[in-house]
Structure of Diguanylate phosphodiesterase:
Amino acid sequence: MTTIAIENPGHTGAADDAQLNASFARQPILNRDGMLCGYEIKVRAPECAAQTADAAHAAVHAAVHENSDADAASPRAPDPAQRVARAILHGLLQGNVRGALTGHPAYVDVSREMLFDEAILRLPAERFMLELAPTIEVDEALVARIVQLHGRRYRFVLDEVTQPNEAFAKLLPYAEVVKIDFMHAPRALLPKLASVLKSAGKLLVASGIDAQADFETAHGLGFDRFQGYFFARAQTSTTRRVSAPRHALLNLLQLLSGDPTVAQLEAELKLNPVLVMHLMKLANSSGLAVGHKVTTLREAINATGTNRIARWTQLLLYADGRKVALEDDPLLQLAATRARFMELAIERLPEAGRDEADAAFLTGVFSFVDAVFGGSLESTLNLLTLSRPIQAGILHRQGVLGLLLSAVEALERGAWDEIGTLCERLQPLTVEEVAELGLAAGAWAGVADRSAEGLERIED
């Protein structure tokens, strides 16, 4: 959550002293190879803007009736839409948003007010793609402003396109990217639309891709980017490659659940050279440096610690079998972000201790483990010998763990009203805090390969 205080909006008074809160969430965008290449920023606009405007207008109205010279002397009511635009623009510049992007570009909806506000020039042009909604009012002034911003290297996206219309035709020459609403665009129109836009040199994004079949269709039509959670769904025909044998990871997790000795861990790890290699890299990472290079497996176990090895193994389940940097691996990023969010969020609740935080982390990290193993989620969870509250939270969304899991899933979709309803049962947690924790979790996941709390870069 980013809190913005708007300075000098036009007059002084209680209404103007209020702070406007803008909250943000992120949704992954993948390239044709299935790797992360950007994030859509989902914005929750300040809720108090309309009330602030109403209060200001009431103050002006009262002044007019009290003083015949009010037209010259009364304060000017601020434009609520402009105040909201300024709050969002300032919020996008905050460190928590930048950290959650983990070096990737951000796609963000911009209103007409945002485009005409000079504060937009503070957004780094190389990091932000400006999305134009199909409902935006297109006139000569808007086109002129887009041309002006384009001259400053800002890039534009035509958002939520279902089929061409007059606004689409007017804005297309100034757009570098066209985002097609894959679920609502007429399927019969998609091949021709994609072909024409590709011929015109536009980069195509398919949004709403939550099923593997839709990804394959869009991929076959030549789309360049894909937005949705198809990569986190269990596949019936194929399972995801992982960077170590699944049975080895499961055996290690089962051993770790029973408080093993160093000798037991050493014996299990020696059976799997890939895991030994990863652990040695982790032990020698900058975050875990012990003053000298770790050269033996026993040293690596002692330097890393069983708790960290357990988390490392849990996240390693999601690591792609290709030579991929952690911050570009969408499934691992989602698992790490969800798990970290669960851990941070439960710590905000009454009477939550270390055991509860560990259970929350496990709930998040294993909430879609079927995407790796295929088959039934319940059977995979049984294999992992997870506790009943964790299983109930994942399978049936029961208990506090289930509520927090529902909250983070809603956050991933930018479903702010749903988050608000869940927060009524998760007091004192608020929607703003949920958004704030989501960004913090995303930043943690994105730099986990350089952190003592996370993973070493996954490489084969």
Q: What stands out?
A: Residues 49-66 form the longest helix (18 residues).
